[in-house]
Amino acid sequence: MEDVTDQAFRLLCKEFGASMVYSEFVSADALIRSVNRSLEKIRVDDQERPVAIQIYGRDVPSMVEAAQIVESEAHPDILDINFGCPVKKVAGKGAGAGMLKNVPLMLDITREVVKAVKIPVTVKTRLGWDNQNKIIVSLAEQLQDCGIEALTIHGRTRSQMYQGEADWTLIGEVKANPRMHIPIIGNGDICTAEQADEAFKRYGVDGVMIGRATFGQPWLFKDVRTYLDTGKHDETMTLDWKMAVLKRQVQKSVEYSLREDNALKERKRTELGGIMHVRRHLANSPLFKGIPDFRQTRIKILRAETQEELFALLDEAKERITSLG
Ligand SMILES: Cc1cc2nc3c(=O)[nH]c(=O)nc-3n(C[C@H](O)[C@H](O)[C@H](O)COP(=O)(O)O)c2cc1C
């Protein structure tokens, strides 16, 4: 997820039990132009493996070239193609979910990218462009025929953006289609361990992708993993432990931002870079839901510029949670 799944965060998700993690999506055009921020996005650490790097674009040559850059520069385990992003600046230009309006081009890109790299290629998309065009059941077969090795489906149309509830019934239909043999990963509105469990049981998917519910709580995977394995929630995660995790995320984020990197040496990398990555997580952490009058503290978190400031705000939040009993 853009501006969310940076390396510091992915490593924590992995540590807490995510089977697989994905980079933020990366523009094929920006990668080809060697835009620094894009090169930074494709950097992976061995501890993240298996890790996928996701790219998006709107034509065959740039997607093929970007896929080859990703393979040779970053060596991820998987290359994922984004045909699901609904935002105007992406879909409006025909990339991301915009490709749901031009299926022949979507299939051409997929086929050529599969041919151009040795690593497995996967796709993430939505149910269709809008309610009248929920094409995913036949589209899934066509994508599979292009040689992809797994398909992730977000149970919304492009027109829905992020509104309404995700509809998993069509995801279940894709999975139940006897012609389909690649793994199907379901996505949309999974916020709890129970919902993840239900998605596996009811729709038969091979994997569940969790997005927004992970903001500010990478430990969600620990609970989901425990619940899937034992049918019980993970009771070991105390408030102190969670606070320590958030501080670790801040530290990692700053550390990555400051780290020496020859490829990026022209770019001024500062502590603030790391802080900016992590502020959104902290401000949205479910840990702080229900604290009365927390708005001002949340604003301070969003404005903090140093690790020290953030740590002090986290300590303050912890005291307030503790005082609530
Ligand atoms: C801020 C934000 C950034 C996102 N960036 C990406 C992205 O880069 N690639 C992608 O495949 N999906 C992206 N998504 C979509 C999510 O991966 C996911 O498909 C969607 O939020 C529904 O799943 P959820 O209900 O578990 O969040 C993004 C979503 C949000 C809210």
3D structure, described in words:
This protein is of the alpha/beta class and 325 residues long. The protein folds into 2 domains: 7-230, Aldolase class I (TIM Barrel, Alpha-Beta Barrel), CATH 3.20.20; 239-324, no CATH class. It is 47% helix and 11% strand. It has helices at 7-15, 28-32, 36-41, 60-74, 88-91, 103-116, 136-145, 169-176, 193-203, 220-230, 239-258, 271-283, 295-303, 307-324, and strands spanning 21-27, 51-56, 78-83, 121-126, 151-154, 184-187, 207-209. A 7-stranded parallel β-sheet has the order 1-2-3-4-5-6-7. The longest helix has 20 residues, at 239-258. The two termini are 34 Å apart. The relative contact order is 0.10. The model has no long low-confidence stretch (mean pLDDT 94). Flavin mononucleotide binds at residues 1-2, 4, 24-25, 54, 82, 84, 124, 154, 187-190, 210-213.
Number of strands: 7
Low-confidence stretches: none
Q: Overall pLDDT, averaged? A: 94
Main β-sheet description:
7 strands, parallel
**Based on helices, strands and strand pairing, what is the structural class?**
alpha/beta
